[in-house]
Amino acid sequence: MAKIKSWLDRHKTIRTILLWNGWPTVVLVLFILQVVFGITVYYSGYIYTFLTATKLPIEVLKHYEALLAELRQFIQMLTGPTCLTAVIACARFVYDPDKDGVPNILQEEVKKL
Asked: Residues 29-53, buried b or exposed e (16+ Cβ, 10 A)?
C-alpha cells in the first residue's frame, strides 16, 4: 500500500483523475445513455425489418428477428427491477446538493453515529 501511495504522490495528475468526485455521476450518465441507445437501436432495427421484410430472404429475416429478440432481452435486463434498484441506490449516494464533496446521505449517517 505504501508503494501505491508513493507512486500516486509522484504522479499528481493521475491521482487527481482517480480521486475526482464526478466519477459516480459519469457512470450513471453512461448507464442512462446505454439504455437510451439500446432502445433506439431496437426500434430502428424493428422499423428496418418491417420496411424490408418483403425484400429479404426468410433466412435473413429470421436472423434479424433473433437479433431483435436478443436486444429486447438486453433492454429488459437493463430496465428490470434489480438493475434499476442498483442505479437508484447509486444515485442516492451521488446526490450532493450543497456541493461540499460529501453526499448528504453519508452526512446523515455520520450524524446518527
From this structure: eebeeebeebeeebeeeeeebeeee
* pLDDT tens string 5-61: 777 677 777 666 666 667 777 878 888 898 899 899 999 988 988 888 888 888 888
Chain-centroid distance of CA 73 in Å reads 16
Q: How many domains does the chain have?
A: 1
Residue 19 lies in a domain: no
In a domain, residue 69? The reply is: yes
C-beta separation of 60 from 45 below 8 A: no
pLDDT of residue 1: 64
For the question of whether the overall pTM of this predicted structure is more than 0.70, the answer is no
- Residues near 101 by Cβ (< 8 Å), separated by ≥ 6? 21
